[in-house]
Amino acid sequence: MTNSICGPPVKYVVSSPHGDIILDEDADKTALICTRSDAAGVSSETDEKDLPGLTYGIYLRLIKKFIARDSYRLLIEAASTGADRTIRLKDIDEIVIRSEKHGSVYHVARIDVVVEGNAIRFAANVAFSAEGKRCMDRELAVLRHLRSRYPFSFLPHLYFAGKEEYRTEKSAGETVLISLGKWFAGYHEFHLSENETGPGQGLVVWDYDNGFKSFSDKQGREIYRQAAKILSLYYDIDTFRQIYPWHHASGDFIVRADPCDGATDIKLITVRGYAPLIDFSTHNQSNRLAALLHFFSGLSIRMRLDRFDGTGEIAWADDRYVDGAIEGFFDALKIKENAGEYGQGKAGEFIEILRGLNADDWTDVLIESLDIYNKNDPHLPVILHHLSDHAKMLRSAVQKLAAIT
C-alpha cells in the first residue's frame, strides 16, 4: 500500500521472520490483533473487542497522518537531527512505515525516511487503549526526567508526541496517542530458548533481517551483565526509585552484536515507571543499605525470568546469566562511587556485607523481595520453586566476587 499525496511517497509494510510483507488494499480488512507478554511477562491476547474495527490500514495511515503534520515539519526537524545535516521535504525520496510488533500496551512501528538512498530511522509507539495512553503519558515524563538526571544513552531519545483522531466502522471519534523517537538501528529482541539437541537453554536474537541466531554462553553472560548494569545505574540510592516494571518477555531490552568480533551492546527501549518499591525513610543510612540489598535481590530474580521464545512457557535463566547480572550490578555501583553518587562509603564494602549473609539470610531477603508480585502472578510459583537454589547460588557467587577497589 502506497500513498504519495501531499509529500513523498509512503509505503506500508509489516515485518515478519520471513521478510517484509507489503500491504495491499486488503490491509483495511485485516484486524489489528496481537498476542504478546505484558510488562509482567504475562502472555495475553488483544482481540477485536478491545480494538473495535481497527485494521492494519487504519493503524498505519494514522502514523502517516501524525508524521505529516504541518507539511512534515516535525519529522523533517527530527530527520535533520538524526542525519546531523539539514533535510528538506524535497530531499526525502520515500517514507516506509513498517509495523514491527504489537504489545499489550503499545503498538510499535519503524519509520524509514529515505534520503539519497539512506534511511534515517525512527520508532513510533502507538497507544490505543486508555491504559496504553496513561502508560505513555507516564513514560514520556519519566524519560524526560531520566534524560535530565543521568548522562547515559541507554534509553530512547524522544522527538515529539501527540494525539490523532480516527474512526472505524465500529467506533467514531476515537483518539490515539503516538510518540516518535530514535530507532536503535541494528538492535533486536532476544529471548531464552530451550536447546533442541539436549538439556539446558540458549539465548536467541530475533533478527528479522539476517535470521534468528543463538548467542554463545560468553555473549549471553555479557548481555545479562549489561542489562543489570543499566537498571542499576538508574537506581537512585537516595530515594530508592528504580525503573519498574520491566520484563525480558516483553522485549524491553534489545541487543546489537558486532558481526566481526561478536561484541554486544544493550539498550532499554521502554521505561514504564520510576518509583521506589519499598516504603523506607530516606533519611536513615541503614535504610539506604537495606533498600540497596532489596534492589539487588529483586534484580537477581527478575533477571532470571523470561518466556521461552518470547511467548512460550515461563523460563528461569541458568546460573551463568545471573553471574553476569551480578557483575553488572557492581559495575554500576563502582561508577556511582566514582561519580560521587554512591554515598555509602566504598562500593566494595557492600560486597563484604553480602558476604556476611548465609543461605538462610539470603532466603529471607529474597522472600521480602517478592512483595511486588501479586499472589496470582504466574511467575510466583516458578520463583518459589527455585528460591532455595537461587539463594545458595547468590551466596556462592558473592563469595567468589573479586574485591572492588
Care to describe what's here?
The structure is a single chain. By secondary structure, this protein is α+β, with helices and mostly antiparallel strands. The chain folds into 2 domains: 2-182, 2-Layer Sandwich (Phosphorylase Kinase, domain 1), CATH 3.30.200.20; 188-400, no CATH class. It is built from 9 helices and 19 strands. The strands form 5 sheets. Strands 1, 2, 3, 6, 7, 8, 9 and 10 form an 8-stranded mixed beta sheet that branches. Helix 4 packs parallel to helix 6 (319-338), helix 5 crosses helix 8 and helix 8 crosses helix 9 (379-400). Residues 37-49 have low confidence and may be disordered.
Give short descriptive properties of this protein.
globular; about 35% helix; 2 domains; alpha+beta; 9 helices; Phosphorylase Kinase, domain 1
Instruction: Provide the gyration radius in Å.
Output: 22 Å
Q: What characteristic shape results from the CA principal axes? A: globular
Count of domain modules: 2
Q: What is the number of helical segments per DSSP (H or I, 4+ residues)? A: 9
> How much of the polypeptide forms β-strand, as a percent range?
25-35%
The helicity comes to: 25-40%
Helix and strand element order: EEEEEHHEEEHEEEEEHEEEEHEEHHHH
User: Can you give the mean pLDDT?
Assistant: 89
The count of β-strands is 19
Taking the alpha carbons of the first and last residues, their distance comes to 59 Å
A few lines on this structure:
This protein is α+β, with helices and mostly antiparallel strands. It contains nine helices and 19 strands. The chain folds into two domains: 2-182, Phosphorylase Kinase, domain 1, CATH 3.30.200; 188-400, no CATH class.
